[in-house]
Amino acid sequence: MTSPTPSSAAQSLAFQDSCGSRGSPSGEWWPVVASSSRELLASVRSRYCGDAYINASGWLQAASFSEAEAAQDFAERLAEATGERFWIADPLRP
Q1: Alpha-carbon span 81 to 11, nearest angstrom
Q2: Which among 94, 93, 84 has a CA at the least distance from the CA of 34?
Q3: Which of 45, 20, 50, 23 is nearest to 32 (CA)?
Q4: Are 38 and 24 in contact (CB under 8 A)?
Q5: Which of 4, 9, 19, 21 is the most exposed place for a label (fewest CB within 10 A)?
Q6: How many DSSP H helices and E strands does the chain contain?
Q7: Which residues, including other chains, have CB under 8 Å from residue 93's CB and lie 6 or more apart?
Q8: Reported pTM
Q9: Which residues contact 80 (CB under 8 A, 6 or more apart)?
């Protein structure tokens, strides 16, 4: 019997203390979010993004990116890795 092989998305996601962009020259941020769940938050924090949290809107926020394309890519990889729906929330502007 063979063991299941992790998806390519799961393989490309490694634990990081902090996920997302380090800075935003434009001041605009694209949050990657999911429906709030204690179980999902614990999983994302322990496996992918140590600083994931429940934001003021009540969503699980895994990361923020300075570019929408980077946020979309990360949301898709995180969704594939976790089996949960992640998406980009409205951008935060200065």
Answers
A1: 8
A2: 84
A3: 20
A4: no
A5: 4
A6: 3, 4
A7: 27, 28
A8: 0.85
A9: 7, 9, 10
Strands, E, within 1-94: which ranges? 30-34, 53-54, 60-65, 86-88
Backbone angles phi, psi at 44, to 5 degrees: -65, -40
Q: How far is Cα 55 from Cα 77, in angstroms, rounded to an integer?
A: 21
Check the CA dihedral 21-31-59-10 and report its sign.
negative
